[in-house]
C-alpha cells in the first residue's frame, strides 16, 4: 500500500487558475503563489455578494484516538463524492500546524486518495500565514515589554502581563519562563508563558474577522496586561494595531488549492478546538458559500468541542445557518471508548456515539453518521454500528474514501443530499449570550459533556468578577478541554455521567470576542511524544521529502 506522500506525488496537478475558474473565481481575483497555490483577493466579495448561498455541511466526530479518526480526510472525500454526483462543491479546512505535523498526529492534508495538494507545501510553511500570525503576536509582546523598559507611562504591573509569546512548534519547556534577565539593558524581568500559534488570540481574530477593518478593530481590543490600578491595557493603547495589521494583510486572504480529484479547496486559518474555536476562517467559509452549491467544512475534535464552538461562536459571528452535520465514526475510536479490542468494546463504545448524536440534536440540525472504513475493520463490527444507527432512525453510510477517493463516498454523499432536502435545518444556538457567565459554562458542561456540576477555583471566581467589571460577561464561551474525553479527564472514556468539571481560570479573548474557561490539565502549549514523527522525516539530495504524512 502506497503512503500518502507517494500517492500525492503520482497526481498531475491542475494549474491554480484552472481550479479558480472551476470555483467561479476570475483571473484578476487570483494572487498566485506558484503554479498550484493562490491567495484570493477579498475584492471578490463585491462581485459575488448577491450570489445565493450554498448548503453548509459541518463534519465532526466522536471522542478520538490520539491519531485522529480521519475527519479531515472525510471532509475532502465527501467533497469529492458530491462533485462526482454533479454538485458544484467546495471545501474549507484548517491549515496544519507544525506542532502536530512534527509531533504525534502528523500532517493535516487528508490521506490516501482524499488529500489536498500540494501536500508537502500545505503541511510545512504553505503560504506563510502561520509565520504572519506568529510575527504579529510576538510584535505585540515585544512592544509591551519595550514600553515597560522605556519608563512604563501606563504603570503596567509586570505581575499581571497576560499576553504570552507564541511559537508554531510543540515545546513544553517554554510553557513557563522568565524573560528580561541579564541586567537593566536587557529589559524588566517577569514571568511569561509561551503558547502554540494555533492558540494565539490573533489566530482566532484572523479566523473570525469579516474584513480588514473588522480585523483592526478586533486587534485593538486585545488585552495584554493590567496596570497597578487594575486598568486593562490593550493593543490599541500600545499603538500596535497598524503594524500588526500590515503583517496580517496577506494572511487575511484565503488560500486556494485542490484535492486529488481537482475539487477547489480553501485552506485558511488553524485554531485548535481543544484550546481555541477549532474551525477555518469565516472569510473562507463565507466566500465558499457564495461560490458553491455545497460547502463542506470541518470542526476540530468531537462534537462537544469543535462543533459546539462552530455553532455557538462562528455561526453567531457570521450569521451562518448549517444545513447538516456529518458525524465521523471509526471502529478504533469506538473500541477505545469501549476500553477493549473486541466486539463487546465496539458495542460499549456506542454510548459515546449516542452522546455525540444527542449533542448535535441540541442545535436542530439533521445528522448522518459516516463510518470511516479502515483496512482492518471487520464486517461484523461495521454491522453493529449500522444496526445501532438504524435503531435510532439516523442515516448511516460506510465511506472508504482513503482507498477509493470520491468514489468511496458516493453512498454517503447521496444520503447526505437526500437528508438535506427532506429534513430542513432548524438551527439554533445552545445558550443566550445575555445569561451570566457561569450559566453559559454550565449549559455547555451539562448538555454537551454530560457533567453533573461545575466547580470553580478561587482564581476562576476572581476572573468572572473581573470580566463582569470590564463588561465582557456577554461574550460567548470557548471552553479549553481535553479532546479525549467528554469530561475534563482524558482517561475518563465512553460516556461518563454526572461528573464534575473544574474551571481553573478564565482567559479573556476580548479581540476574538469570547471567554476561554481553562479546565482540567489542558495547556495552550502541547508537548512532543517520546518518539515524535519528526524523527522519520528526511529529504534526499534531489529534494524528495520522506516520512511526512
Textual characterization of the structure:
By secondary structure, the protein is an alpha/beta fold. The chain has three domains: 4-127 and 251-422, 3-Layer(aba) Sandwich (Rossmann fold), CATH 3.40.50.300; 129-232, Domain 2, N(10)-formyltetrahydrofolate synthetase; 437-519, Roll (Formyltetrahydrofolate synthetase, domain 3). It is built from 19 helices and 24 strands. The strands form six sheets. Strands 1, 2, 3, 4, 5, 6, 14, 15, 16, 17, 18 and 19 form a twelve-stranded mixed beta sheet that branches. A hairpin with a 4-residue loop joins strand 21 (500-509) and strand 22 (514-519). Helix 7 (129-149) packs across helix 8 and helix 7 runs antiparallel to helix 10 (241-248). 53% of the residues are buried.
Write the layout of secondary structure elements.
Layout: H1 4-9, H2 16-23, E1 30-32, E2 38-40, H3 44-48, E3 55-61, H4 71-84, E4 89-93, H5 98-102, E5 110-111, E6 114-117, H6 119-123, H7 129-149, E7 156-161, E8 165-167, E9 177-179, E10 190-192, E11 194-196, H8 201-208, H9 212-220, E12 223-227, E13 232-234, H10 241-248, E14 255-259, E15 264-267, H11 282-291, E16 294-302, H12 303-318, E17 324-329, H13 331-337, H14 343-361, E18 367-372, H15 379-391, E19 396-399, H16 401-404, H17 410-422, H18 437-449, E20 453-456, H19 458-469, E21 500-509, E22 514-519, E23 538-539, E24 545-546
Parallel strand pairs: 3-16, 3-17, 4-15, 4-16, 8-11, 17-18, 18-19, 20-21
Antiparallel strand pairs: 1-2, 2-14, 5-6, 6-14, 7-12, 9-10, 12-13, 14-15, 21-22, 23-24
Amino acid at each position: 500500500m502506497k503512503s500518502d506522500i507517494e500517492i500525492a506525488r503520482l497526481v498531475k496537478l491542475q494549474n491554480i487558475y484552472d481550479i479558480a475558474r472551476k470555483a467561479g473565481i476570475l483571473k484578476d481575483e487570483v494572487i498566485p503563489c506558484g503554479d498550484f497555490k493562490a491567495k484570493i483577493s477579498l475584492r471578490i466579495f463585491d462581485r459575488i455578494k448577491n450570489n445565493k448561498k450554498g448548503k453548509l455541511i459541518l463534519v465532526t466526530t466522536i471522542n478520538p484516538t490520539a491519531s485522529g479518526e480521519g475527519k479531515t480526510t472525510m471532509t475532502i472525500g465527501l467533497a469529492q463524492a458530491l462533485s462526482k454526483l454533479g454538485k458544484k462543491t467546495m471545501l474549507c479546512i484548517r491549515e496544519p500546524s507544525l506542532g502536530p505535523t512534527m509531533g504525534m498526529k502528523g500532517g493535516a492534508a487528508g490521506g490516501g486518495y482524499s488529500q489536498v495538494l500540494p501536500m508537502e507545501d500545505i503541511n510545512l510553511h504553505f503560504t506563510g500565514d502561520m509565520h504572519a500570525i506568529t510575527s504579529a503576536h510576538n510584535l505585540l509582546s515585544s512592544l509591551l515589554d519595550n514600553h515597560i523598559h522605556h519608563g512604563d507611562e501606563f504603570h503596567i504591573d509586570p505581575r499581571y502581563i497576560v499576553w504570552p509569546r507564541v511559537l508554531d512548534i510543540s515545546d513544553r519547556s517554554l510553557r513557563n519562563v522568565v524573560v528580561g534577565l541579564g541586567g537593566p539593558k536587557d529589559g524588566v524581568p517577569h514571568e511569561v508563558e509561551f503558547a502554540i500559534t494555533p492558540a494565539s488570540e490573533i489566530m482566532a481574530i484572523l479566523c473570525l474577522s469579516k474584513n480588514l477593518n473588522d480585523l483592526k478593530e478586533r486587534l485593538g481590543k486585545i488585552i495584554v496586561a493590567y496596570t497597578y490600578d487594575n486598568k486593562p491595557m490593550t493593543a490599541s493603547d500600545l499603538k500596535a494595531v497598524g503594524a500588526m495589521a500590515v503583517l496580517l494583510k496577506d494572511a487575511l486572504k484565503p488560500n486556494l488549492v485542490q484535492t486529488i480529484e481537482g475539487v477547489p479547496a480553501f485552506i485558511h486559518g488553524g485554531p485548535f478546538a481543544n484550546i481555541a474555536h477549532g474551525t477555518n476562517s469565516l472569510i473562507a467559509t463565507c466566500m465558499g458559500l457564495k461560490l458553491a452549491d455545497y460547502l463542506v467544512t470541518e470542526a476540530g475534535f468531537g462534537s462537544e468541542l469543535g462543533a459546539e464552538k462552530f455553532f455557538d461562536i462562528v455561526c453567531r459571528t457570521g450569521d451562518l445557518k448549517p444545513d447538516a452535520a456529518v458525524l465521523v465514526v471509526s471502529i478504533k475510536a469506538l473500541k477505545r471508548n469501549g476500553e477493549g479490542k473486541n466486539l463487546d468494546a465496539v458495542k460499549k463504545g456506542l454510548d459515546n456515539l449516542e452522546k455525540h448524536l444527542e449533542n448535535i440534536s441540541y442545535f436542530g440540525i439533521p445528522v448522518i453518521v459516516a463510518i470511516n472504513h479502515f483496512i482492518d475493520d471487520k464486517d461484523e463490527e461495521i454491522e453493529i454500528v449500522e444496526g445501532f444507527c438504524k435503531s435510532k432512525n439516523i442515516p448511516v453510510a460506510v465511506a472508504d474514501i482513503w482507498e477509493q477517493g470520491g468514489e468511496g463516498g458516493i453512498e454517503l454523499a447521496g444520503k447526505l443530499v437526500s437528508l438535506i432536502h427532506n429534513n430542513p435545518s432548524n438551527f439554533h444556538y445552545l445558550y443566550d449570550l445575555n445569561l451570566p457567565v457561569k450559566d453559559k459554562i454550565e449549559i455547555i458542561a451539562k448538555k454537551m459533556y454530560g457533567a453533573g456540576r461545575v466547580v470553580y477555583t478561587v482564581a476562576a471566581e476572581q476572573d468572572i468578577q473581573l470580566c463582569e467589571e470590564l463588561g465582557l460577561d456577554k461574550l460567548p464561551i470557548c471552553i479549553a478541554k481535553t479532546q479525549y474525553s467528554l469530561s475534563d479527564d482524558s482517561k475518563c472514556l465512553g460516556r461518563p455521567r454526572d461528573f464534575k468539571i473544574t474551571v481553573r481560570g478564565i482567559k479573556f479573548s476580548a479581540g476574538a470576542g469570547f471567554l476561554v474557561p481553562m479546565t482540567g490539565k489542558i495547556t495552550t502549549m502541547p508537548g512532543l511524544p517520546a518518539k515524535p514523527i519528526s524523527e522519520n522525516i528526511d529529504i534526499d539530495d534531489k529534494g524528495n521529502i520522506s516520512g511526512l504524512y
